[in-house]
Queue: 3 jobs
Job 1
Amino acid sequence: MADSSIWWVLTGLAVAFELATGTFYLLMFAVGLAAAAIAAHLGMGLTAQLVIAAVVGGGAVIAWHLLRGKKMVGKNAEFNSDVNMDIGQTVQVDAWQADGTAKIKYRGASWTVQLQEGSASGTGSYAIEQVIGSRLIVKKL
């Protein structure tokens, strides 16, 4: 079997394992294996194929890790609208209690609402900024 065929089989196995496990890093590794297959098609030696597979695959893994890391910094699930569909939604507060909270009906359930620090109180519409358990932290719109 030709070197390029072996590289393509390894690429297919890496993609299959990625599909089974859901880790994107294996897909980046498969890119390196595909680069080695292309190097084999171009007639490069085994050493060059191995170096290309390592450099391209490893570089893709490192690039993905760095890119993913930058996007995830500071995204706590309590504040992240990608994780919690309630963040950014609007609620109506009709009255505040003496302890600075309010009881509202939201999505068919009873919720406790607390004002975000520095936000003005009063009746009206509020945006949900954070969800902590069954407590909504809101700010005035």
Job 2
Amino acid sequence: MKQGSIFWLTGMSGAGKSTLASTLKSKLNKNFRVNIVDGDIIRDKDDSKLSFSYNDVLLNNSRIANYCKAIRLDYDLIIVAVIAPYDEIRLTIRNILEPNFHLVYLKSDINSLRDRDTKGLYLSADKGLITNLIGYSDSNPYEEPSNAELVIDTSNLSSEKDSFSKLYKYVSENIS
């Protein structure tokens, strides 16, 4: 039986993961069975309140990967939108989900992320209300992927169409 392709969108908060995933699903849903797995939704559904410590991020990302593995026969493609900040965790995820796993890094400069801070996380971190914001706090870095199949710079808000076009082209060429 054919396994669905998995496109794992990683990047810091505000890089455009959920927005691009949603737009991609609406475009592809006509011809393919598509599911979006959003890291925030999975985290919020969990009864145990996970922190953003390394171990809790590893646990959350592993849960997401295993969930994707369990449902991938039901879909042509699964789009995952989650920060997944550490290379070691992304390698573990890749090992769980290969073959037909594609890591897409949505890269954005910090000023752009702060400017479009839809969740108010960067503002909260600036005020000291959040002390371990991934990629923004010194104590909790975001490691740029060393092995992404596709890197899209989403720094410029006017590039949302360009970002989508690059992602759509890549996904269309790599749906198995």
Job 3
Amino acid sequence: MKWTRNTIGFAMVLSLAACSSSKESMSYLALGDSYTIGESVPTTTNFPYQLADSISKSGKEYVSPVIIARTGWRTDQLIEAIESAHLKNEYDLVTLLIGVNNEFQGRSIGEYENDFKLLCRKSIELAGNKKKRVIVLSIPDYGFTPYGKPNQKRISERIDLFNVSNKRIADSLGLKYVNVTEISRRGLNEPDLVAEDGLHPGVKMYALWVKEILKKLK
């Protein structure tokens, strides 16, 4: 996919403001691609940061996200990055959102499924083998952006196929699944949900994603 810029490399630790000593520390690992780093929006407004901030404001926990993501990554590239990062299997929360570049580059569903299973299992491992700590997000539909509008039908059909696969895999492993695709499909009717690049989610859309994730965490 023709992305606009690469804002963050992988394995970068993103820390929020210092928390009070009265709050229990909670570790958070976010795995993905441009949708996770927040391409074209300020770093502190991507969905992992907004999620961490929302949890912190609840007064229960403070979360400092570790983000392994890069614009343009496919599933196989994310797998390689995780292996290179030598992470500890102790995260209290792990989110996984990956696949749009597999779709865009015409990679097969079969290849995606094999990689995605590995990523889900690795996510469980990184969450201390506790499935309840892992949240899988569906792939957004960039067909409902100014960039994707000319090929909307084809894009949406492909995104649906990939999301059927990742949901089936997530369900089979007993993982929480958050559908953000329908929110992304509001992008053309609600242009303020899309970033200035005309392709990626904007700050407001990420905020809507966070609301859906928080429902699963409750």
